[in-house]
Amino acid sequence: xxxxxxxxGIASGKTLVTDYFKSLGAWIIDADVxxxxxxxxxxxxxxxxxxHFSPDILNADGTLNRTALRHIVFATPSxxxxxxxxxxxxxxxxxxxxxxxxxxxxxxxxIYAVPLLVETGQQERFDRIVVIDVPKALQLQRLLVRxxxxxxxxxxxxxxxxxxxxxxxxxNDIIDNAGSKADTRLQVTALHDQYSQYQTTT
Length: 202
Prior knowledge:
Rossmann fold; 2 domains; five-stranded parallel sheet; 9 helices; about 55% helix; Dephospho-CoA kinase; Depp_CoAkinase; transferase; coenzyme a biosynthesis
């Protein structure tokens, strides 16, 4: 099985691209989904966060209030470091289990979407890395609309991630998502064909 790491900065269009891959039959593992799983009510991940940050980060139903937590960690870098050190090992362990399951099922290739692939140093896990690329100004514009963030918050989020140049430096393949959805879909289809063919000849 070909393991493809897919990454891109926040608001670059990872969901759109993974949805296109999925529609073509690709098996998708999404780090954002795994990140929600490791902080479900009663999980060791959520218990560790509550013990550190206090129950103020919880909603009334006991689920994680992501907005409240986001305000804390982006205001205080050391708190973000604690969050990363707590959750990233849990996510990596769970992703390893899902990748092993995909191998057993026998999928030709699997896409593992990892927003912080560069930041967490996971390049060596993958046979190919595809980067979704958009200009920083477009990221900022999309982020302000999508999350109703202030410009200060949005810029802080962008500054906390790897730069566009750092992501492009590790890319085997690039999807330009600054244009139309139709153009993006054409690029995804071409990569799907490439990955499927690569797998059948190795």
